[in-house]
C-alpha cells in the first residue's frame, strides 16, 4: 500500500554521538545500497529537471495558450542563460530539504512532500529574487519550467520507488537488521518485515534479554545476543540497523548509551512502539520534558468526515453510472446471449453496523449456482470463512471475462448511490460469514463495505483470510478521503492486470 507500509516501523530516529566520540564509516552492504539509491535519486532528479528546462525553452514561444491562462510572456528574458543556474539551484534545494535522503524513501508520503516543498520553495525564491533585483525573467519560461519540472520530479520518484521495491522483493539492496526485544515482540516485528519484503529489511537475528533454551524464538528467529551487550554482538555480526521493540532495554539511560554506540559504528537505530496497523497520519510525536510522547489521533469517523465521504460516494457513483452505461448495456447483452438467463444477481450481504442489504452484481455463474455449491464444499481452496475455487465450474464463459476485469461488480454502483455501500471500503460479507466471525473481525463492520478496497489492490482472491481481515481492519481504523482516492487510482491498475481475479 504503498500499501500502508510506511507505518510498520513506527518511530525512526538517529541520535548524535557525544563530543569526542569517534565515528567510523566502515562500508556495509546496506550502506552501499544507500549510496547507490542516493545516486539514482540525484540522476533521476537531474534528468527530470533538464527535461523541464528544455521543454520550457521550446514552449515559451507558444504564447497563445499562455495568454489563455492569463500569463503574458517577455521573450527577451534571457532564459537560456539562467536555465543551467536555476536547474542547479533546484537540485541544491532538493538536497537541502532532505528530499534525496535514501533512508526516508521507498514508503509513505514523506518523500513526495519534501520534493514538493523544495520545488515550491525554489519557485518562490526565484520569483521573489527576480522581482527584488528587477531581472526580466521570462514569465512563460518560469511557469513551464517549474510546472512541468515539479510534475516530472514526482513521477520520477514514483517510478524509482517502484523499481527499488521490486529490487527489494527480489532480494537486492536489502538492509540487514537485528530485532531486539522479548521473544514475542521479536517474532511480531520479524513477521511484518518478512511479509512486507518490499520494505527491504532482512532479519538476520534477534537480541533478547531472556534468550530461549533452544536459541531460537517460536517464529524461528535466531537469538544472537543480549540487547545490553550490543557492542559484543556487532563485533561478530555485520548489520545495518537494529530494531528495538518492547522489552529490549530496561531504561532510557540504556537506550541513550546504546544510541551512542550504534552511532559510532554507523549502524542505524530504529524504535518500534507497541503500535501496529496505525497510519502515519494518526501519529503525532511530541517531545514532553525529553520524553517522545506518541499521540494517536482518533480515526476519522466523526460526522463531518462521514458526510464528506458520503458526498464523494454519491457524486462518484453517479458519474460512473453515466459514463459506464454503454459498457453495462454490452455486458447485459453478452449475458443474455450466453445462456438466456437473468442479467442481474441479487445476494444478501451485511453492511455497516450489521445491517443487511441486497447487493447487485452481473450474473457470472450458472443459474443453479447455490445448489451446485453444496457439492463443491470439499473443493474449497479458501481459508477462514471464505469459499474460493480457481477453477469454479459454476462460472460461465462470459462470467470468467467479467470476473477477470471486475465488470460483474458494476451494478454495485447502484448500492453505492443508495447508501448501502461505499466506493472504497472492506469487502461486503455474507450473513453466514458474519455468523462465523470471532474476536476482532467484527470491527470491520464499523464502516460501509466498498466496491474496492485495500484487499482489491493488494491481491484480491490471492489473499489469505488473515491478510484480508488485516487490511480491512487497517482501513476501518485509518480511512481518509486521500487514501480513498489513492485506492481508486490503484484499483484501475489491479483491474487491468487481472491479478488475483477468479
Automatic annotation (TrEMBL):
Pfam family, one: CoA_binding_3
Protein name: Bacterial sugar transferase domain-containing protein
Organism the protein comes from: Janibacter melonis
GO molecular function: phosphotransferase activity, for other substituted phosphate groups
Membrane topology: Multi-pass membrane protein
Residues of the Bacterial sugar transferase domain: 309-496
Annotated Gene Ontology cellular component terms: membrane
TM ranges: 42-62, 112-134, 140-160, 311-337
Record keywords: Membrane, Transferase, Transmembrane, Transmembrane helix
Subcellular location: Membrane
Keyword field contains Transmembrane helix: yes
Family stated for the protein in its record: Belongs to the bacterial sugar transferase family.
Primary subcellular site in the record, as a coarse category: membrane
NCBIfam families (alphabetical): EPS_sugtrans
